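Propose amino acids for all 328 sites.
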């Protein structure tokens, strides 16, 4: 049996047990390897789903243009679907996006517009504002806006959540994931909680993002929102698809902890994952260590690893870059 096109290979990614990095916690920890998706990340799920939703709603017509603000991975998912369906793509991204991600997007024929990193979302130079402006000025275009697009959450409710439930035979007790748009953690959490409301869903945030403090105190503190190097995780504001009420707790990790854990995944578990994967696992292991009284040999933990290390060879896996940023 074969697929009619590459989009048929999205989803059904494997769960793999971690053995070396988890020796100090008395439970089973499984990694959901989203880099097995054809575009190399969990965002393939929503890229396809959002393009489909735009078609079905009548917003995206034959020969149209898809516009999106992306840190790279969502763009990859969108451009794959768009190429198959015959749409053009224009993406905006911040200047911190890796060279590998830039080359990936342009390899598919997408147009990439780089924007300043350290500006507010409302600033006309921000990659959100520029994306909206491009969509407004481009005939036949649609701005998908993954941060508020309901198809984002639904994609994970209908795919990621059911996959994890089935793969663990319904025995999952804890789910850890990073969040940016909120779609992955919210959609997956919604499904898992409907199956078993006792499942704990814990978000992992980078220092410099707003989500950790918002979860615990209900406020966004400007003094705690600042630039960080991890790509594709965290946010300076509360995205529309981030449904905090579905979460049990929130933890966080530093850039350095995330980068070093990413490299440890490769060296100790032979899993070549990206920066936000290291963030997710660093946060998960720290949370588990802090809550040893709440876990035991029957606890079954799933940590979602969003993307591949191939998109960060010039950064996390480059000793010179790591030393320049004082991570080594």
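Proposal:
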């Amino acid at each position: 049996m074969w697929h009619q096109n590459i989009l048929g290979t999205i989803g059904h990614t494997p769960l793999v047990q971690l053995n070396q990095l988890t020796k100090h916690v008395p439970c089973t920890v499984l990694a959901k390897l989203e880099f097995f998706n054809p575009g190399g990340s969990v965002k393939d799920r929503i890229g396809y789903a959002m393009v489909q939703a735009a078609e079905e709603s009548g917003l995206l017509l034959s020969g149209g243009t898809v516009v999106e603000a992306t840190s790279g991975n969502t763009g990859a998912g969108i451009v794959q679907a768009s190429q198959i369906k015959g749409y053009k793509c224009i993406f905006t991204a911040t200047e911190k996006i890796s060279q590998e991600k830039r080359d990936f997007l342009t390899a598919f024929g997408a147009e990439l517009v780089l924007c300043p990193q350290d500006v507010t979302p409302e600033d006309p130079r921000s990659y959100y504002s520029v994306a909206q402006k491009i969509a407004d000025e481009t005939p036949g275009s649609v701005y998908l806006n993954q941060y508020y697009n309901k198809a984002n959450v639904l994609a994970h409710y209908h795919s990621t959540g059911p996959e994890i439930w089935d793969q663990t035979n319904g025995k999952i007790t804890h789910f850890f994931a990073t969040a940016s748009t909120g779609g992955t953690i919210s959609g997956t959490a919604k499904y898992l909680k409907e199956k078993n409301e006792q499942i704990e869903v814990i978000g992992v945030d980078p220092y410099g993002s707003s989500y950790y403090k918002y979860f615990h105190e209900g406020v966004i503190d400007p003094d705690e929102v600042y630039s960080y190097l991890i790509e594709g995780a965290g946010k300076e504001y509360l995205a529309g698809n981030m449904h905090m009420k579905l979460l049990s707790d929130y933890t966080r990790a530093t850039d350095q902890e995330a980068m070093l854990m990413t490299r440890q995944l490769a060296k100790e578990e032979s899993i070549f994952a990206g920066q936000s994967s290291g963030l997710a696992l660093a946060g998960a292991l720290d949370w588990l260590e802090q809550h040893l009284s709440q876990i035991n040999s029957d606890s079954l933990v799933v940590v979602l690893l969003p993307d591949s290390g191939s998109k960060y060879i010039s950064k996390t896996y480059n000793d010179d870059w790591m030393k320049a940023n004082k991570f080594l």
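The first helix runs from residue 43 to 56. The chain has ten helices and ten strands.
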